[in-house]
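re: the backbone from monday

yeah here it is again, tokenized this time
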């Protein structure tokens, strides 16, 4: 499988003990950044073995029969139920497949590679870049700096057979410009800000 991705979202984790205000902070951050035109996705992680599916419901019966992916569709929402645990990398990959986002906030993040903001006085996790103590504007500024760093770094990611291929500036430039030119020539394609191409054989 060959995959090409452009416009990778910036990811921040929010962590802390229960009832310290993690969700409240994320809601404030989402409200703030969406008002500025930033496209945001959120993830809630927990170490508990919980399921949103309910025993006896139709979706639960679908899974029990062997369906690996169950989709619940109603007049107001669509829920994708993957009955398997996923690591953070897999979750972020699914988010990218669902749409184009600038920011992803992960509540309860424990992945050491993700920059995090601590809420409360819990044990400090690796890659903690800020602490929230009712200093909302300071946290917003930390996130904005992180977004600028992300946007100034690599904009094209190439994955071949599940492995990330490191690109220097020259091949990244050539690949991006070539694909952008080909896509721009297609009928109905205008103002390309991001693209995803997957080839499986």
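seq for it, each position gets an aa:
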């Amino acid at each position: 499988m060959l995959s090409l991705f452009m416009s990778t979202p910036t990811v921040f984790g929010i962590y802390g003990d229960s009832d310290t205000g993690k969700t409240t902070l994320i809601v404030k951050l989402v409200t703030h950044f969406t008002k500025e035109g930033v496209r945001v996705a959120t993830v809630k992680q927990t170490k508990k073995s919980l399921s949103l599916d309910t025993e006896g419901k139709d979706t639960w019966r679908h899974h029990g029969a062997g369906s690996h992916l169950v989709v619940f569709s109603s007049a107001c929402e669509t829920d994708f139920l993957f009955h398997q645990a996923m690591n953070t990398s897999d979750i972020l990959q699914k988010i990218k497949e669902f749409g184009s986002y600038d920011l992803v906030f992960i509540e309860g993040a424990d992945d050491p590679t993700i920059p995090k903001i601590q809420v409360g006085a819990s044990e400090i996790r690796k890659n903690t870049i800020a602490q929230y103590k009712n200093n909302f504007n300071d946290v917003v500024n930390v996130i904005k700096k992180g977004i600028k760093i992300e946007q100034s770094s690599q904009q094209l990611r190439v994955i071949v057979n599940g492995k990330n291929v490191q690109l220097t500036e020259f091949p990244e430039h050539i690949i991006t410009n070539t694909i952008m030119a080909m896509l721009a020539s297609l009928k109905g394609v205008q103002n390309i800000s991001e693209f995803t191409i997957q080839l499986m054989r």
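The two ends are 6 Å apart (CA to CA). The chain has a mean pLDDT of 84.
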